[in-house]
Amino acid sequence: MELQKKQPVPQPHLITSEDLREQHFGEAEGQLWTMLADPGKSLAQHMAEGIYPAMTERNEKFPTGESLNDLEKRAEKAIQELIMPHIWKAAKDGRKGVQVAVVSHGLCISEERTAHCCLLFLLTFVLCITNSLYQHCSRRVPRVGRL
Description:
Elements: H1 2-5, E1 33-34, H2 43-48, E2 52-53, H3 68-93, H4 106-110, H5 112-130, H6 134-138
Parallel strand pairs: 1-2
Helix pairs in contact: 3-5
């Protein structure tokens, strides 16, 4: 927020959202991780010994944490609520060259499916603005979802 205060007038609009935070690792938050988990032990057994094995499946998560699938849903929600309203308003108003900057954490940004959804929407936005086809595109753009 300090960076925003130092911007020239008119200062850009700033929206903060918990949906852009890093993946929450629950009880493993702040703990050391290992790639060398004992395949004969459960997650609970590892954690009881202070060992936090890296999760390898999208649906896996530590107790009270979130999985990559959970993170994906949260990132998709952020796109719908924080980015798309600006893009659709610009398209509807016929404005070109509108910029929306999003700052987040590594896993939220790099989440593959979310990145593909962002790319799909940004390409759709460019096509709509470039060709002045807002009415046509707005009926045909798919909702953010799984690719």
